[in-house]
TrEMBL record:
Its EC number is 5.4.99.12. PANTHER family: PSEUDOURIDYLATE SYNTHASE, TRNA PSEUDOURIDINE SYNTHASE-LIKE 1. It catalyses: uridine(38/39/40) in tRNA = pseudouridine(38/39/40) in tRNA. Formation of pseudouridine at positions 38, 39 and 40 in the anticodon stem and loop of transfer RNAs. It comes from Pedobacter steynii. It is an enzyme of class 5 (isomerase). Keywords: Isomerase, tRNA processing. This is tRNA pseudouridine synthase A.
Amino acid sequence: MRYFVHIGYHGLHFNGWQKQPGILNVQGVLEQALTQVLKTPVFINGCGRTDAHVHASQFFFHMDIEQPWDFDLVFRLNKLLPGSIAIFDIIPMSGMQHARFDAVQRCYDYFIHTYKSPFLNGLSALYLLKDLHIDKMQQAAALLPQYKDYRPFCTSPDKYEHTICNVMSAGLTVDRSGDRLRFQISSNRFLSKMIRIIMGQLLKIGKGELSVDQFEHYLISKETPLLITPAHPQGLYLSKVTYPYLNLPPRTEFSAILQNQVDQFG
């Protein structure tokens, strides 16, 4: 029987989601825990791939299990897994739904703080910047849903069949003091490092190193910027994954706390 598993993870100390030999990754840790608890080899398929040190407020994977279990699997897994990975729900499916290919929308959040804070370290990206042109950053972010081809904002566009992304929404919010920022973007799919590259371009706009017109020129012409500087990975969260048959609210707190603080003052 196929099951969807709803999880969240703090990715700072992981080298991304995808299983790779000899490298600490989320998929490998989960498969090891499932195999140990269910006493049979378990292989899982995730809803996407997050980069090294990127977080997930909401993530789904699917697994096929032949024999049902007669104990609280969520409880046992959470006892065994490290504190940086949490299991929220295990959902039996009626068919062979696919965690990656069936997703119709993915939403990411990127958090920035502009002052050193021991409490935000690893949960938000630190940029010691003052007097950012927030209005221009917001203008540029608002342009994103008007365009479909994101080839200029991808590290390896030629590995894809196409670079079309249906960006449904994008926006930048800031708290009243101007030192906490949240960029949010939702789309049916994302390209390699696309969000971190966009965030890097928005920061250049905020610093006055790039104009909004130049930013839009990349979207229109599909020309890759001469210098691509992706934003730090630890500010990025996969925060919502939506399916035609499954639409659950995120359960993790570490992203929600930051989001609520920004929203409160935005």
